[in-house]
Design goal:
The chain has helices at residues 8-21, 27-45, 64-72, 99-112, 117-124, 127-131, 140-147, 151-167, and strands at residues 54-57, 60-63, 79-82, 85-88, 137-138. The chain has 168 residues and is mainly alpha-helical. The protein is globular and about 40 Å long. The model has no long low-confidence stretch (mean pLDDT 94).
């Protein structure tokens, strides 16, 4: 089973982008927007925006490394944490996000940005979440299958990820 290749800079810029554009800036809302944007981006373009590995938690998929960054609040130069809310200290560096990254982030914000926690939880408890064990990895194969990808496309994306990992 495959996990993506994490990109810390794109992840940080994605957090900032979503927190600046979305009215609700709590962790849960941002994590769900990132999940849905990553899922759709991987399905449409063959790569994840953040590259984070999602974990099955009670309220839905949680981006593991991003969660660690946010809860530790180690990047106070770009955002601050007030309770469970991300407060951007600067604008996202748009040169680090591709046109397709921004398109999928915007679509996820539009579609999911105003939904309640209970609705987001329900929507994120799909095939991929159900396929993972509690607190376990949600694998690329299952995320792509949830998005509607066929086996050949899933194999292609996973091979590309394996190639990326082999050169790191």
């Amino acid at each position: 089973m495959t996990t993506p290749v994490f990109n810390i800079e794109k992840s940080l810029q994605s957090i900032l982008y979503v927190a600046k554009k979305n009215i609700n800036r709590d962790f849960h809302q941002i994590f769900k927007i990132l999940y849905f944007a990553d899922r759709e981006h991987a399905y449409k373009y063959g790569r994840f925006i953040t590259g984070d590995t999602y974990i099955r938690m009670d309220f839905g998929p949680v981006p593991s490394a991003i969660y660690d960054l946010v809860k530790c609040n180690k990047r106070t130069d770009i955002f601050n944490i007030k309770g469970y809310v991300v407060v951007p200290a600067t604008n996202a560096n748009m040169s680090l996000l591709s046109v397709s990254d921004v398109k999928e982030l915007d679509e996820a914000i539009e579609k999911y940005g105003n939904l309640s926690m209970s609705v987001l939880t329900e929507l994120s408890h799909g095939y991929a979440w159900n396929s993972a064990s509690k607190n376990g990895y949600i694998f690329v194969e299952d995320i792509l299958k949830e998005a509607g990808a066929d086996d050949d496309y899933i194999h292609y994306v996973c091979e590309h990820i394996a190639l990326q990992k082999s050169v790191l």
